[in-house]
């Protein structure tokens, strides 16, 4: 049984509690306790404030392990040669080992001499920066940086460049973490690759080209020291505007290198004596070519991968892509020259069209406005010039190179189109004009008002080899090859007749070339079609003749007989356009582009196989992995130096059978006649198998030619951007075909004369060219462009036949013995083999 606590124990417990309460009261009343507690609270608040201002949302430095700086996209041509680069930040990424040791020391001397000793933060320097910040508060002046190279990496790559004390603290914390995550060489590599150094150069290698037009390993000590001063502010040390300031800062860096033991006194003195030696403008590492072509490539890449880093890792302007295209520089030059010459020929004698552009000149500074206009010319000896003033009977000119010249009155006497007067009186100061050298001075030239486009494609692959979308992409950025929707006129006819061949007609089918009218309903009434030039119908003729002579009446009659729904379905699957089933579309009234038409003809030349045309063969990421097209596979052994005895390698093709192979060959065979004796006869003296078709639409507002050989197909049109009449004499055969001929003369030079290959099943039959009837006992004269008898291509069981009468059977049998004894009569197959076969 428990006993109650004694009175003595209870009293002792009470005394202990009183002593504790008293002690707590005395401690609380002490000012030291209160001070300590206040300091503790302030410490907690400070820690929280530090976390909130500095540590909250601090980015992870682990991203730097896999950091990839924005890199330009590089474009290569069909032979692998570089042709262009898309960049907003010029940068070449190097590894640390590729940077010259002396250049690294120059940057250390200028930016962070103790880089290899500290752990991310230079505390004396940081304290000095904080003090400088406090003393300059309210003055509007910016405090000195005091950042180490590691802090600059943190600022540039992770947290940005906001000017505040909290950013400086965040920068310091991140620098400490970076030093724990990366090695010193890795940090320097990041810094030297990404630092902005002016002239749109990011990274030291790009700056080397921008300022000295040299590779990094070609720089001397003075040039390395100059690059090392640029992180402090490239515009402050511009070698042209701030030469003296730049020299002082460069020499300061050289002295720092000497003090740090990086160089000898003799090296310092020699470098100090050198001028800056910076170039005004860098020479491109390669000549950028194919303006319209590479711009179309850029559009396609932008649609696929996006523009900047926010659009994904493979963006055009930061993804560092390597793009292999089908661009053929030789064919591009020929197509560009032929189209330009044709436009100038058409436009010559029509007067001056006014200046290319007008800009304002202030304080006689004409060079900068001219450079900023981005206007240049490379047609023959033409150059772009800015009018800077007038001296009596001559205008003063300035050029992009900084040189000057004069335009005398007598060399600018052409009439001003649409206004009257002469060009000399219409020119004003600030006009940018086209001129050409003449007798030590310059003569005015007129940029053609008319325009057009030219596209060249390889039928076997569908690859676009050349593309010219106007006179000059620096004057006219609009790409008429892919963006200008024009009426193709008669160039649509081979596709219309292909639909007819697919639906029972043959090249020898007789079609009436006569009046053809259709009733279009109560509102539109009767519509009667006409031949070009309003010529009357010529009566019944073969399909071949109708195509060779481009007869409109025969075309619409054929389209009506075939059925316009079938015709427009064929036009659509050939990639030309999606049209309603109206007969006018059979004569080229629907709008399309020259690029689409060239692709459609390439499908014909490739026995009906094809697909969308391609400018891009494949795209690689910065590490060399092919990322487009999907499921891309290389062609094994395609680049072998010689045949290895195995089956020939076949490149991977993405083409499909768009049109019946025999139909396609029949149409190519027919349109070879257009070149031999039809509307494109000007091409006949090229003396090679060639098919094609001219086109002239209403007005005429556009003239066309499309055609080519098995090696490549080309096409072009000429017309004003705002369609208007080209003149009654303008026709595809007189304007467009000669331009293609100028191109073809050199384009096909040294190429073999390849015939078009006939697909399996095609039957070659001798027929009378006029009537389409079969012919026996005589042979086509291959030397005559207009033979009475020709070989015609037919599908099986569709060729015309001569009926045999029963009464002929007995004499034929009796004659057999005699025939055997005589030499065997010539056979069609013998003739075809002598001609090299049918391909």
Tell me what you see in this structure.
- The chain has 839 residues and is of the alpha+beta class.
- The strands form seven sheets. Strands 4, 5, 6, 7, 8 and 9 form a six-stranded antiparallel sheet that branches.
- Strand 13 and strand 14 form a beta hairpin.
- The longest helix has 25 residues.
- It starts with 6 loop residues before the first helix and ends in a 5-residue tail after the last helix.
- It comes from Sphingomonas albertensis.
- Its EC number is 2.4.99.28, 3.4.16.4.
- In the N-terminal section; belongs to the glycosyltransferase 51 family.
- It is a single-pass type II membrane protein.
Average per-residue pLDDT, rounded, comes to 86
Regions with pLDDT < 50 over 5+ consecutive residues?
A: 804-825, 835-839
The biggest beta sheet, please? 6 strands, antiparallel
Question: How large, in whole angstroms, is the Cα Rg?
Answer: 40 Å
The fraction of residues in strands falls at: 5-15%
Helix fraction, binned, reads: 25-40%
Based on helices, strands and strand pairing, what is the structural class?
alpha+beta
What is the overall number of helices? Answer: 24
Question: Globular, elongated, flat, extended or rod-shaped: what is the shape?
Answer: elongated
Give the terminus-to-terminus CA distance.
125 Å
Q: How many DSSP E strands?
A: 24
TL;DR?
This protein has 839 residues and is an alpha+beta fold. The chain is built from 24 helices and 24 strands. β13 (516-519) and β14 (526-529) form a beta hairpin.
SSE layout and pairing:
Elements: H1 7-29, H2 31-55, E1 73-76, E2 82-86, H3 101-111, H4 123-135, H5 149-159, H6 165-181, H7 184-194, H8 204-212, H9 221-229, H10 243-259, H11 265-272, H12 291-305, E3 322-325, H13 329-347, E4 357-358, H14 367-372, E5 383-390, E6 394-398, E7 404-408, H15 423-426, E8 431-438, E9 441-445, E10 451-458, E11 463-468, H16 493-501, E12 510-513, E13 516-519, E14 526-529, E15 539-542, H17 543-548, H18 552-562, H19 564-573, H20 594-605, E16 609-610, E17 616-620, E18 626-628, E19 656-657, H21 661-677, E20 691-696, E21 702-708, E22 713-719, H22 732-747, E23 763-768, E24 789-794, H23 809-821, H24 828-834
Parallel strand pairs: 1-3
Antiparallel strand pairs: 1-2, 3-17, 4-8, 5-6, 5-8, 6-7, 8-9, 10-11, 10-22, 12-15, 13-14, 16-19, 17-18, 20-21, 21-22, 23-24
């Amino acid at each position: 049984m428990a006993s109650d606590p004694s009175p003595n124990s209870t009293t002792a417990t009470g005394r202990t509690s009183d002593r504790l309460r008293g002690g707590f009261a005395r401690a609380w009343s002490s000012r030291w306790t209160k001070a300590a507690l206040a300091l503790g609270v302030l410490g907690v608040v400070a820690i929280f404030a530090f976390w909130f201002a500095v540590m909250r949302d601090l980015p992870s430095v682990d991203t730097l392990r896999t950091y990839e700086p924005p890199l330009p996209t590089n474009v290569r041509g069909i032979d692998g040669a570089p042709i262009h680069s898309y960049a907003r930040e010029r940068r070449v990424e190097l590894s640390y080992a590729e940077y010259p040791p002396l250049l690294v020391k120059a940057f250390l001397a200028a930016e962070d001499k103790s880089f290899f000793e500290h752990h991310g933060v230079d505390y004396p320097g940081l304290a000095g920066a904080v003090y400088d910040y406090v003393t300059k508060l309210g003055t509007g002046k910016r405090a000195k940086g005091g950042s180490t190279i590691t802090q600059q990496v943190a600022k540039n790559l992770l947290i940005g460049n906001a000017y505040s004390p909290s950013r400086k603290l965040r920068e310091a914390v991140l620098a400490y973490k970076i030093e724990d995550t990366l090695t010193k060489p890795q940090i320097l590599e990041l810094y030297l690759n990404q630092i902005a150094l002016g002239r749109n150069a990011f990274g030291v290698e790009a700056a080397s080209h921008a300022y000295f037009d040299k590779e990094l390993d070609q720089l001397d000590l003075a040039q390395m020291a100059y690059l090392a001063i640029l992180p402090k502010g490239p515009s402050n040390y511009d070698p042209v505007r701030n030469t003296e300031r730049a020299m002082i800062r460069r020499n300061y860096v050289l002295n720092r290198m000497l003090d740090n033991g990086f160089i000898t006194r003799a090296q310092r003195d020699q470098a100090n004596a050198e001028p800056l030696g910076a170039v005004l403008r860098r020479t491109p590492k390669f000549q950028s070519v194919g303006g319209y072509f590479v711009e179309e490539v850029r559009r396609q890449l932008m649609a696929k991968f996006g523009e900047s880093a926010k659009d994904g890792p493979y963006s055009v302007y930061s993804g560092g892509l390597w793009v292999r295209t089908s661009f053929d520089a030789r064919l591009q030059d020929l197509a560009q020259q032929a189209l330009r010459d044709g436009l100038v020929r058409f436009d010559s004698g029509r007067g001056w069209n006014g200046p290319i552009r007008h800009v304002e000149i202030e304080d006689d500074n004409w060079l900068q406005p001219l450079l900023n206009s981005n206007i240049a010319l490379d047609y023959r000896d033409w150059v772009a010039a800015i009018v800077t003033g007038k001296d009596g009977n001559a205008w003063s000119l300035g050029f992009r190179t900084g040189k000057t010249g004069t335009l005398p009155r007598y060399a600018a006497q052409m009439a001003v189109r649409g206004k009257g007067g002469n060009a000399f009186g219409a020119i004003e100061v600030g006009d940018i004009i086209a001129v050409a050298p003449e007798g030590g001075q310059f003569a005015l030239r007129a940029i053609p008002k008319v325009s057009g486009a030219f596209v060249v494609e390889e039928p076997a692959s569908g690859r676009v080899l050349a593309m010219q979308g106007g006179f000059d992409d620096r004057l006219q950025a609009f790409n008429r090859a892919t963006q200008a929707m024009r009426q193709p006129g008669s160039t649509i006819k081979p596709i219309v007749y292909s639909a007819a061949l697919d639906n029972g007609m043959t090249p020898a089918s007789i079609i009436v070339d006569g009046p053809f009218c259709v009733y279009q309903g109560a509102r539109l009434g009767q519509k009667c079609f006409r031949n070009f030039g309003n010529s009357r119908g010529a009566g019944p003729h073969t399909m071949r003749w109708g195509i060779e002579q481009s007869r409109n009446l025969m075309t619409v009659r054929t389209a009506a007989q075939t059925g316009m729904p079938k015709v427009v379905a064929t036009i659509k699957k050939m990639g030309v356009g999606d049209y309603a089933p109206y007969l006018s579309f059979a004569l080229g009234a629907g709008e399309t582009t020259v690029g689409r038409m060239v692709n459609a003809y390439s499908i014909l030349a490739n026995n009906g196989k094809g697909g969308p045309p391609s400018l891009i063969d494949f795209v690689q990421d910065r590490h060399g992995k092919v990322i487009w097209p999907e499921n891309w596979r290389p062609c094994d052994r395609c680049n072998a130096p010689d045949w290895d005895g195995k089956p020939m390698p076949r490149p991977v093709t993405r083409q499909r059978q768009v049109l019946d192979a025999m139909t396609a060959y029949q149409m190519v065979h027919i349109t070879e006649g257009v070149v031999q004796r039809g509307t494109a006869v000007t091409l006949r003296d090229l003396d090679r198998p060639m098919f094609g078709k001219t086109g002239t639409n209403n007005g005429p507002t556009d003239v066309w030619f499309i055609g080519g050989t098995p090696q490549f197909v080309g096409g072009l049109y000429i017309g004003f951007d705002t369609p208007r009449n080209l003149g009654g004499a303008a026709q595809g055969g007189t304007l467009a075909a000669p331009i293609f001929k100028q191109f073809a003369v050199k384009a096909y030079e040294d190429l073999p004369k390849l015939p078009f290959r006939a697909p399996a099943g095609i039957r070659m039959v001798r027929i009378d060219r006029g009537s389409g009837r079969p012919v026996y006992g005589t042979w086509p004269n291959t030397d005559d462009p207009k033979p009475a008898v020709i070989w015609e291509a037919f599908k099986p069981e569709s060729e015309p036949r001569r009926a045999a009468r029963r009464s002929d059977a007995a004499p034929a049998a009796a004659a057999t013995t005699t025939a055997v004894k005589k030499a065997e009569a010539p056979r069609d197959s013998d003739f075809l083999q002598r001609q090299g076969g049918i391909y």
